[in-house]
Amino acid sequence: MPTSPLTPDRQARIDAELAANPFLAEIGVLFESAGHELAIVGGPVRDAVLGRPGNDWDLTTSARPEEIESVVAGWADAVWDIGREFGTIGVRKGDHQLEITTYRSDEYEAGSRKPEVMFGDSLDGDLARRDFAVNAMAIRLPSREFVDLFGGLDDIDHRLLRTPVTPEQSFSDDPLRMMRAARFVAQLGFTASPDVEAAMAAMAPRLEIVSAERIRDELNKLLLSPHPVAGLRLLVGTGLAEQMLPELPALKLERDEHHRHKDVYEHSLTVLEQAIALEGRLEHAPDLTIRLAALLHDIGKPRTRRFQDGGTVTFHHHDVVGAKLVRKRMRALRYSNELTDHVAKLVELHLRFHGYGSGEWTDSAVRRYVRDAGDQLERLHILTRADCTTRNAKKALRLQRTYDELEERIAVLAEQEELGSIRPDLDGGQIMAILGIPPGPEVGEAYRFLLDLRMDRGPLSEADATEALRAFWAARD
């Protein structure tokens, strides 16, 4: 198809990238001298055209894996072959990492979760098997010849995602490409072409042959993108979300004209956007934990919805139910236990603040809030604030001020009592010595009593804590 020209400014961007990374020309000469073709391909070329900085370099070559290793031997600082079965050899040169892959095409056999690797013999054939035209551009090395066989430049001009071959063939070769389409919508602000979107909707069930780990990794990249909501809308609209995150489309609850409740799906997307806007409070951003928690915080609502007289709807205990659903889904997607625990904790606690009312909590309640949040307290602050999506400006301002007050109380108590590491005033050894008991369940019972006492009354002297412990133990018999 006709393509846009490589304009002077785009050529200048490419030249600047190559000049800033002279090792690319060096390795190009090495491969050429050995009789092999080599080209930069995929994301690095697209990003150079867009003027986006890149750190990782993907290269493709006519050389087979063992030939790649032979060519870079003595030039590379390190070589690894963890991707050999897929034709990929990893190379480190200075601070730069390169992945060099033999011309190839990956295709899934029916019912298989692993792609069959087939080596090719031309750059043109390799580019035809790329996921999208914007990723099917190349720069030959060392000649710097720009290759755009499928209109990638034109698609960049129109901010469009198309496939080099038919979308049906592309997505059949690798169904994960359907999720990549949503990820690139979120990352680049592009739009999927109508035929791509139609193929995604028709072929969504084929995602079932892709491993949970690959799906999880694509979902993470989407969520950590600048505009994740756009990508999520595409996943839901095409039915892909139903295959890998069905709790998300389930939030599109049927509306009843006689009952009033927020649009839970739209509310959740808004909470995600508002949480992203508050990520500056965290040490590192973007933050996958808070983004997952914001997206999933209300997934317990469909299971707990009840209609009441007078046109109201309730979702009692949707926080607890939601936390259980989060654990189930995140385990299915092979998330780590640690991340799963953090997200589930945030979902379970996201309503706790609403018991604060107009500031009636005792110091004991504030201590328990901090204690229960643990190391997720700052993220809980973000999620709770983001969860306010009311259009009532007065109500929104009142909630903000009330939470400001809660955070101020936490800060004061934290300064006085080291809230982040609340422990009983007596340790296990002291408990056993005072009560004359051996290690065992009874020590834990006494420890929990002292912890509750610490929560209720704040720090106690050793004498006061000992007296309280003796009284508790005597009353227990």
From TrEMBL:
Pfam families: HD, PolyA_pol, PolyA_pol_RNAbd. It comes from the Bacteria. Residues 264-383 form the HD domain. InterPro entries: Bact_CCA-adding_enz_type3_sf, HD/PDEase_dom, HD_domain, HDIG_dom, NT_sf, PolA_pol_head_dom, PolyA_RNA-bd, tRNA_adenylyltransferase. One of its GO terms (biological process) is tRNA processing. One of its GO terms (molecular function) is nucleotide binding. Its cofactor is Mg(2+). Keywords: Magnesium, Metal-binding, Nucleotide-binding, Nucleotidyltransferase, Transferase, tRNA processing. Its EC number is 2.7.7.72. PANTHER family: CCA TRNA NUCLEOTIDYLTRANSFERASE 1, MITOCHONDRIAL. This is CCA tRNA nucleotidyltransferase.
